[in-house]
Design a protein that fits this description.
TIM Barrel, globular, 12% strand, single chain, 8 strands
């Protein structure tokens, strides 16, 4: 089995924006420094909570560069292309910005490619990109079947698999493959269970808000303190259930980070709206679970 690039907690970063939707570079640097110093194995730019899906290559490169300059941990980049051409452009931007590896989602806008087309995109990336490639199976409406994931790995087109989208069944099936590549979990609320069933690491947006807690959970698991790991898992699960709101998730994540002393700026329009009660709800939740500093 190929060795994983990193093992452990990979925090999928938030991107602080100002009121006009521009990147707040000072807050980004502070966010990255705080998260990377918490002991995470790596940080990731461009994940589900980053608000960078659809970003132009120049902006993506600039954010990667800003993260790399502030991070004390390795930096990965996650891209969501709608075509092979866009995949190559975003991959080039991420690597030019200093990212060390790429998590690449399959195109999913309106239609999904068949296995041959998907393999063709990853072959093009393999030919052009001189960095580790992982397939990111994280879009609920466009999940790649187990057989196609296995084919990508068997043909040497990917160096690992990130399985998310809430599909723990597919995650478990991947871990049962005899000649599997490194497998990472992208299911935020199941970090403890993901380590328990043998994942090489977890890629989590929630870990960007609670980096020290995710690291403590992993350390408890590695040391055999399953009661401690389970307790932290349950606290984080209850928090995630409130933060994972269908319309307000980005606002709630950033509110939670700010309340914990990590100002995370505004969410980009149109995801910056929330009810007047939201801030109080998030504060009450964090206080109840003893996550306020």
């Amino acid at each position: 089995m190929p060795q994983p690039l990193v093992r452990g907690v990979i925090a999928s970063l938030l991107t602080p924006f100002d009121a006009k939707g521009g990147v707040d570079w000072a807050l980004l640097a502070a966010h990255v420094t705080t998260v990377s110093r918490a002991g995470v194995a790596a940080v990731c730019v461009g994940g589900a909570g980053s608000e960078l899906a659809g970003a132009k290559p120049a902006e993506f490169e600039a954010v990667c560069r800003g993260v790399v300059s502030a991070s004390e941990a390795p930096v990965l980049a996650s891209i969501y292309p709608d075509s092979t051409r866009e995949a190559l452009e975003l991959a080039g931007a991420a690597l030019s910005g200093g990212a060390q590896a790429l998590l690449v989602c399959q195109p999913h806008y309106l239609f999904q490619p068949g296995p041959e087309g998907l393999a063709g995109m990853f072959r093009a990336l393999r030919d052009e990109v001189k960095a580790p490639l992982l397939v990111s199976n994280t879009v609920r409406t466009a999940l790649i079947p187990l057989a196609h994931l296995r084919q990508l790995a068997a043909n040497g087109l990917v160096d690992g698999i990130l399985q998310g989208a809430g599909d723990a069944h597919l995650l478990a099936d991947l871990l049962c493959l005899r000649d599997r590549p490194p497998v990472y979990s992208g299911i935020d609320e199941l970090a403890y269970l993901s380590f328990l069933i043998g994942c090489d690491g977890v890629v989590s947006t929630l870990a960007a808000v609670f980096p020290a807690e995710f690291v403590a959970l992993e350390q408890a698991f590695r040391s055999g303190d399953h009661a401690g790991a389970r307790s932290m898992h349950e606290r984080l699960l209850r928090v995630w259930r409130t933060l994972e709101h269908p319309a307000e998730m980005l606002v709630r994540l950033k509110a939670a980070a700010t309340l914990r002393g990590q100002p995370a700026g505004s969410a980009r329009s149109p995801y910056n709206w929330s009810t007047p009660e939201t801030a109080g709800l998030v504060r009450e939740l964090l206080a109840r679970e003893q996550f306020l500093q």
